[in-house]
Write a structure and sequence with these properties.
This protein is mostly helical. It is 63% helix and 0% strand. Helix 5 packs parallel to helix 7, helix 6 runs antiparallel to helix 7 and helix 9 runs parallel beside helix 11. The longest helix is centred in the middle third of the chain and has 17 residues. The chain is globular and about 55 Å long.
Length: 218
């Protein structure tokens, strides 16, 4: 297996002092080894080099990462999924949703939304799934739907963005209203007139946080 040795090497680089800091930053929601991002990426680099030689996504590996108690392994799984993005298909969406709804917090969600976004950009038929996700019972699934177009610039599907946001009008959930603001703010860098008009037309339905974030650059 291409990842043989990776888990042990991560444990060998554990740093309890850093682990305490990382746990505190994440509100003590997850245990950490204390392996910070630059070290983690350095450890993974040779393993990922081997992984890229494979023609399909190794979900056995990502499952092991997600089941691991230490949060860094979920980060590794997300990095790996981004690396193998071109091998993902619509058939993998149930597995991706499983990761979105298991041990969810903004740190993994804000990476998985880009994985889903790139998948949908390559296969527009997935837009209907993301539209359905915008009304899901899970706030994290809805957050992915709201923010999956971040960074698309002129390739943004404004009609889809608008409908997904409208499906979340009236939410009192911080992570939803923040996501709405971020999606509007990001698109305002490409189409400020559209965002300005959307906020103006829907001001009474948008949370103050969404308006504040979305108006940052307009």
């Amino acid at each position: 297996m291409w990842y043989t040795g990776l888990f042990e090497e991560m444990k060998q680089n554990a740093n309890e002092q850093k682990a305490v800091q990382m746990r505190a930053y994440m509100r003590d929601l997850f245990p950490y080894l204390g392996v910070q991002t630059p070290v983690r990426k350095s450890i993974c680099r040779p393993y990922f080099k081997e992984a890229k030689k494979e023609a399909s996504v190794d979900f056995d590996f990502t499952d092991l990462c997600w089941q691991n108690e230490y949060r860094e392994f979920q980060y590794i799984a997300v990095d790996y999924l981004a690396l193998m993005q071109k091998c993902l298909t619509a058939q993998d969406i149930p597995k991706l949703k499983e990761y979105i709804t298991t041990k969810p917090w903004w740190d993994t969600i804000d990476a998985l939304d880009q994985v889903m976004g790139n998948l949908a950009l390559a296969d527009p038929s997935i837009n209907s799934t993301l539209l359905a996700w915008s009304t899901d019972d899970s706030i994290w699934v809805r957050r992915v739907a709201i923010d999956h177009q971040l960074g698309r610039k002129e390739k943004t599907d404004a009609k889809l963005l608008a409908q997904i946001i409208k499906n979340n009008f009236g939410s009192e959930e911080f992570f939803i209203n923040k996501a709405i603001g971020w999606s509007l703010r990001e698109y305002s860098k490409t189409n400020p007139d559209w965002v300005r008009g959307f906020i103006s037309e829907n001001r009474e339905h948008l949370a103050p946080l969404s308006i504040k974030e979305g108006s940052k650059y307009i």
